[in-house]
């Protein structure tokens, strides 16, 4: 197995990849952008890709979602949720720092610290937190916001620890492959979808949500993304609890197929989260659906089951 991931080495993405069971013993290759990683998977240059999808404070990594919603199909085969902590690494003292570099999502998570401690410093966008550390080591900028292991790898002293504005920050990373059958259900799964609705149909989004609600399927994420076809043309990226193999999920997908302009299946995979899945309301569990299906089957066969 060979994985491409959003590099360079020393990023949070690499740290999360080390926690992915499917990557144990695999060859790993860092690439300089998320689009490059996913294109390498599409071409078959690598077996899988590993990229950030969302952050608990800053929300979606839009390039990842847009690449999954558009382009040649890919599916998510797994996820890793990684706690994120930042440090200020530099060879200088605080009053000598005139410039600070980091990746845009990292800079957004330390705004308060930078406003309080370095209000006059120039903010420099880097390709990644590890790239920012390398630029400090090379003398291009004075300081960087990065992970502790990135500072260590670059040989930089840490001037301040745990500088993030949100101590419970987490980033979600996904394991992406070419279309293939999903892993077996684990009992705590997510199914991801891209749903394209008819923009001129009144109540189109409500109809989509109803397909899930009437089957007791919990939506954990919904986000609109422009399709590029003009103003008002959107696709919706959805995460919902359950697996493609579940009867309820199967019915929901067939319902979406009937009412939507298009539906792109983006994978069913085990959740990497400590929260227990939300149970379905009474009458909407898998057992309830199985019982109802058995009842209907008996009627069609002339049985007397009630």
3D structure, described in words:
It is built from ten helices and 15 strands. With 306 residues, it is of the alpha/beta class. The chain folds into three domains: 96 residues, D-Maltodextrin-Binding Protein, domain 2 (3-Layer(aba) Sandwich), CATH 3.40.190.10; 74 residues, D-Maltodextrin-Binding Protein, domain 2 (3-Layer(aba) Sandwich), CATH 3.40.190.10; 126 residues, Alpha-Beta Plaits. The strands form three sheets. Strands 1, 2, 3, 4, 5 and 11 form a six-stranded mixed beta sheet that branches. Helix 8 runs antiparallel to helix 9. It starts with a strand and ends in a 6-residue tail after the last helix.
Secondary-structure map:
Blueprint: E1 2-6, H1 12-17, E2 27-31, H2 34-43, E3 48-55, E4 59-60, H3 62-69, E5 75-83, E6 87-90, E7 99-102, H4 104-108, H5 111-117, E8 122-125, H6 129-137, E9 143-146, H7 148-153, E10 158-160, E11 170-177, E12 189-196, H8 204-213, E13 219-226, E14 234-241, H9 247-259, E15 262-270, H10 286-300
Parallel strand pairs: 1-2, 1-3, 7-8, 7-9
Antiparallel strand pairs: 3-4, 3-11, 5-11, 6-9, 6-10, 12-14, 12-15, 13-14
């Amino acid at each position: 197995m060979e994985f491409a991931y959003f590099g360079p080495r020393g990023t949070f993405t690499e740290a999360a990849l080390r926690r992915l069971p499917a990557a144990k013993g695999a060859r790993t290759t860092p690439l300089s952008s998320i689009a490059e990683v996913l294109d390498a998977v599409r071409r078959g240059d690598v077996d899988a890709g590993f990229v950030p999808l969302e952050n608990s404070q800053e929300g979606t990594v839009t390039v990842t979602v847009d690449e999954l919603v558009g382009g040649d199909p890919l599916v998510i085969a797994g996820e890793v949720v990684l706690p994120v902590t930042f440090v200020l690494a530099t060879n200088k003292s605080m009053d000598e720092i005139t410039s600070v570099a980091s990746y845009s999502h990292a800079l957004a998570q330390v705004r308060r610290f930078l406003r309080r401690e370095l209000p006059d410093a120039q903010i420099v966008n880097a390709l990644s937190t590890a790239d920012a550390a390398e630029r400090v080591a090379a003398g291009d900028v004075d300081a960087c916001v990065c992970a502790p292991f990135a500072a260590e790898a670059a040989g930089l002293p840490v001037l301040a620890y745990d500088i993030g504005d949100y101590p419970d920050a987490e980033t979600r990373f996904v394991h992406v492959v070419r279309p293939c059958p999903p892993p077996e259900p684990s009992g705590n799964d997510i199914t991801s979808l891209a749903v394209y609705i008819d923009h001129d149909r009144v109540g189109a989004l409500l109809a989509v949500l109803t397909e899930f609600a009437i089957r007791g399927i919990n939506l954990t994420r919904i986000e609109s993304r422009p399709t590029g076809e003009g103003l008002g043309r959107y696709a919706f990226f959805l995460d919902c609890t359950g697996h493609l193999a579940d009867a309820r999920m199967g019915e929901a997908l067939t319902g979406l197929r009937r009412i939507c302009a298009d539906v792109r299946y983006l994978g069913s995979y085990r959740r990497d989260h400590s929260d227990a899945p939300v149970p379905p309301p009474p009458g909407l569990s898998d057992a309830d659906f199985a019982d109802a299906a058995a009842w209907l089957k008996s009627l069609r066969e002339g049985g007397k089951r009630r």
